[in-house]
Amino acid sequence: MQTKKKRIRIKTKIFVPLVFIIAVLFTTYFFPRQGSFKYNFNEGRPWQYGLLTAPFDFPVYKPAAQLKAEQDSILEYYEPYFVVDEEIQKSALAEFDADANLKARLAELAPEYKLYVRNKLNEVFDNGIMRSEDYDRIYQSHTQALRLKKGNVAESRKVETFFTIRSAYEKVLNDVPSSIDADILKAANINEYIHENVLYDAITSEKAQNEFIQQVDISHGMVQRGQRIIDQGEIVGPQTYNILSSLKRVTEEQSGGTTRNNWMLLGQFMLILFMFGSFYTYLLYFRPAEYRNRKHVVFMVLLIAFFVLLTAITVRFELFSIYIVPYAIVTILIRTFIDSRTALFASLTTIIMSSLMVPFPFEFIVIQIAVAMVSIFMLKELSERSQLIKSSFFILLTYIVVYTGLELYQEGNVNEINWVVLVYFLINFIFIMFSYSLVYLVERSFGFISGVSLVELSNINKPLLKELSEKAPGTFQHSLQVSNLAMAAAAKLGANASLIRTGALYHDIGKMANPAFFTENQAPGMNPHAGLPYEESARIIINHVKDGLKIAQKHNVPQQIIDFIETHHGTSMPKFFYISWKNANPGKETNEADFRYPGPNPFSKETAIMMMADAVEASSRSLPEYTEESLRNLVDKIIDAQVAEGYFKSAPITFKDIQTVKDVFVEKLATMYHSRIAYPELKRPQ
């Protein structure tokens, strides 16, 4: 057994670091590679930094709108390129000559008709026939001309000098001499031999267009090294904004070199490694239970990596404002399934890594940290849907208040507030509202259980609990009493009271398989164990744990609740039948496995409290009187015996905790079994 535990522990020590290493490499790979400009600025807003001078010579690029307008202006004089496909003319004439001898509609024509058609076909092909779409497009252009390539020479020609298929056909019919009947030509379907032979040359046209555009200078003027650009507090005007944008562009372009890019990659890797490493260290030293829980580790690392990746994609492709991304979901989900400190640490890790990519990182960090803190305050324990809705409104309010405060602090003018950002906060709020659905998905994917689910499971109208109350009413009442005892002790120790309450309600559902064999369900004078061998009676009693496990799995009860079913007796014995067998068989050796529950023993504070509460509540029913002394003796006797048997060795519970549990049990049992006032009888007048 020791070897197995050691092997699992070693695997965990490899698995968890491996998860973090993969997350670091994955995040680094998707991190934006472009060099980062150290300053953030907006036109019309004050410069937040000190004096800025040009670090090197750089051109002042024209604004995008101006550059596009100039390019569009020069493109008005651009002429697309076309080529003549001579094979089309040869093929069409060859087809006409063949049909003139073989097809009746042409063979019956007089020789002068055939000669006329052939000459006209040659004429229109020599002139050039083009697609009507190309013709219309060029006709509507400024130049109304194109460049026709013949070999290595291209000449400019007006589009009116070309035919379309329709105009070429009309040309053939309209030019007929008086000796030729046009109607006879129409019947001959000569349009079948008219095809486009002037074709658009996309490659040459695109190349020529690019060369045309390059005639427009993309910059106007230069900024010399050391030249003053702007100082702190000055408003970023249009010209200054253009200069700053040009400096940013040049800085980012210069960072594209291989050597510099490699150093940048190393810097990103170091920062990401440090942030994930800090979170890893936090789990290792301050949350060792979470560190050993593989599902929890994978869940948290995936959540952090996902939001960092989402930030990288949003910033790189400029999809939408960064304030639409609901970073509060990281806090909400980890707070719901793990704890507040871990949620805050994970949120800080996500926010700091994301701030390395976003514009205005200071503003981003202040707002997101404030939202993370409010999320934790508002979700002390998620047990109702209304809590999430309420917290979503407070998160929205936090976004608005903190952003407005920052703007007023930095700008000193309410008119400088960008009200569009408030719309982004509203969209963020809508996404956070949907996080309730994410809670359910995470529960199903990772096997977690939230406070909301515990509340739903503990509803006594749930089909399984209702069936228990009908088939084994005594067991159901016992479960309710155990639930009250265990909840009181859990609340005193700071354990999960909701979890232990739900676990107590389900811990004895296996008794539904044979309810009459358990004393709490037996009528006076009824004892199904009478006449049964002690081994058989013990087997029936012990099997209620196995039966409970089967029933719970059949009804998809979460594993956290099944843990209470498996551990509430640990590896103890049904002492009544074991001792009875020993007394009936003096001197004989017994197989203790026949009289021992399968276990395992409790391994959490909640399951340990549950085991104590179950044993104490069941035994308390047999007391002849309920005084504080008798209750104290009973509680001490039962729990001390469990401690002596070593049932709590695997549970993180101290002797001080156990004493606290004893005191709570005595207090609660005294309240449950207190004597009641005897009501006097009404004396009737004589």
What topology emerges from the helices and strands here?
Layout: H1 2-30, E1 52-53, E2 58-61, H2 64-75, E3 81-84, H3 86-102, H4 104-107, H5 111-127, H6 132-139, E4 145-150, E5 153-158, H7 165-174, H8 182-187, E6 198-200, H9 202-213, E7 219-223, E8 228-230, H10 238-254, H11 258-286, H12 288-292, H13 294-317, H14 328-337, H15 340-355, H16 361-378, H17 385-411, H18 420-433, H19 435-446, H20 451-457, H21 463-471, H22 473-493, H23 497-506, H24 534-554, H25 559-567, H26 575-584, H27 605-620, H28 628-645, H29 655-672
Parallel strand pairs: 3-4
Antiparallel strand pairs: 1-8, 2-7, 3-6, 4-5
Helix pairs in contact: 1-11, 1-13, 3-5, 11-15, 13-15, 14-15, 14-16, 14-19, 15-16, 16-17, 17-18, 21-22, 22-23, 22-27, 22-29, 23-25, 23-27, 24-26, 27-28, 27-29, 28-29
Distance between the termini: 82 Å
Q: Which percent bin holds the helix content?
A: 55-70%
Number of domains: 3
Number of E-state strands: 8
Sheet having the most strands? 4 strands, mixed
Which residue ranges are poorly predicted, with pLDDT under 50 across at least 5 consecutive positions?
Answer: 1-9
CATH architecture of the largest domain: Orthogonal Bundle
Largest sheet, order of strands side by side? 5-4-3-6
β-sheet strand percentage? under 5%
Text of the CATH class of the largest domain: Mainly Alpha
| Overall residue-averaged pLDDT value | 87
What's the number of helices?
29
What is the CA-based Rg, rounded? 43 Å
